[in-house]
Amino acid sequence: MRRRPNICDACVRLQKRSNPDAQTSLDRWIPYCDAFPEGVPNEIYRNGFDHRNPFEGDRGIRFELRPGGERALAAYESAAARKQNAASGQGTSPGQGQGTEQGG
User: pTM of whole model > 0.90?
Assistant: First the structure.
């Protein structure tokens, strides 16, 4: 199982520590950072909240692009756009929207 890209993947602050209680490969690591030293909230890490915006409890510390994080940020933004389009009923038909994402 593969998780969706998130903004943390492109952030200079992201760190991970081992999770001894992991039940699946998705739970193997606990993501944390300066803003959330006890663990990044699922609303950000799994549900796609854009942490360039304020989030309760972040102590004013937000996303900062890590060197070389441009591709990860582009993947997050593309996934967020697809999610927003699906939620608004504007999904693409097969064959549409291909070739518009950054590859590499």
Answer: no
